[in-house]
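Weekly puzzle thread! Below is a chain. First person to post its structure in token form gets bragging rights.
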Amino acid sequence: MRYRFEEYAFDTDLRELHRGADAVSVAPQVFDLLDYLIRNRDRVVSKDDLINTVWNGRVVSDAALTTRLNVARSAIGDSGEKQRLIKTLPRKGFRFVGSVQEVQSPADAALRADLGERSLQDIAGPDRSHAAAQDGLASAAHNGGTIPLSPAAPRLSIVVLPFANFGGDPEQDYFVDGVTESLTTDLSRISGSFVIGRHTAFTYRSKAADLKKIGRELNVRYVLEGSVQRGGNRLRVNAQLVDAETGNHLWAERFEKPIADLFDMQDEIVSRLANTLNAQLIEVEARQAERSTHPDAMDLYFQGWAYANNGSTEEYMRQAQAFFDRALALDPGNVEALVGSARVKAAIGANLTRDDWIAQFAAAEAVITRALSHAPNHARAHSVLGLVQAFTNRQVQGIAECERALALDRNLADAHGFVGLAKFFLGRGEETEAHIHEALRLSPRDNNAYRWSMYVGLAKLYLGVDEEAVAWLRRSIEANRNHPLPNFILAAALSLLGSLDEARAAAQAGLVLNPTFTIRRYRARAASNYTAYLTGRERAYEGMRIAGVPEG
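Winning reply:
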């Protein structure tokens, strides 16, 4: 069938979208979403309708759904603000409201003559969706009526297979299943992810695992499998991520802990796995995106975060921002790219590499506010807004934003880090360390752990506990040598301890990463007016001065 609306032609058989004589590139999943909305334009389509049809019932986050809707709107010249063709009805769903004309296409007639009156279900088989069946018709039209292959698996699509209970104790099954179910839920919070629902995943329990076959059957890129083993008073959890297309192992991790409260252990294990997988999956997707000759907005988004995760040098931030800008040029309403862009702008504002730091924070706030207008429950967006507020003398509001982020996503370790930073700005640096310990408990190998350690180092320096400050700051530098600021703070702490040679070396290491750093620039960045905070800053200025940091 071919549908016409405005200057567009939408052909479901050839799976093509044209604007006038020009073809419009549309990802398969976005095409399916448009197809469903157009065919059901006489009614309001609920979120569950879309998920059950387009995503085959997978667990899909609100942010991922919003992103795909915005991509669909962009493809047909619409936007989230205008909603000229696809309208969002709050608390009800979505509806295609454009005027549509149906035209039977030549491909449709030829295909039905060639295949007889076989139904879509005959071609698709009993386990495939209507959207997949439409893919089948299109392939059959081009391949002489042969039964089609499955469409390409979506990015960040994953199934969590039931973890194995290697201890053999049936009473341990509930704990092992709890890890699997919680991990399925928590992975669905990763921005842009598509996670097979637990009911489908559990049908593979106790079966010989041909992971490539499972990937084909479920149309996912990745399979996560694992095991839980109890021995004496210790519990060991193994997990591995596998490329479902090639069968190659991409990542593996082992956790071993003394047995305490099982439910607390389950939460900690799941949080650690989810946070580690978030970073690993972004890295894998970024590598795949590098090979794309025509990257779309999400390809560029993954590459942007990959650069941002490297560290906070001016060059890394510039490259990350360039990728997010390109993503937003293709899809101005892409929530994930908006959040990434705001995070980079906030990092630039915080990193003392430019004098326009106030403008950077203002730009970050404008972008993150725009993201939240599209996705009000986007946890990371709330945490980034909290970070911006913490740096702009609104620490109480910033803490509230981070607490809201944690209510939406309990695994968002960065939000704990931002709360610790905000309390430091409030002159309550003695409270910072506890928040950082919580962040590290949830995500001990997090890409942002170097920042968190720096926050504690700053708090310790301002409190006059210089030896502890040195330990935390060295931990920060070991975690990521591409971040300039902890070197200058370390230089101050070492100077105040009398270790002048080490202090000068730390100052020079910082200047290699950020040659424009001066005490004047640091002094201009006071984030609050609280007395305890300002008094601590005077110690930092003096220590840097002794270490030879330029006055500016």
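Puzzle host: Confirmed. Bonus trivia for everyone else. The domain at 458-552 is CATH 1.25.40.10 (Serine Threonine Protein Phosphatase 5, Tetratricopeptide repeat).
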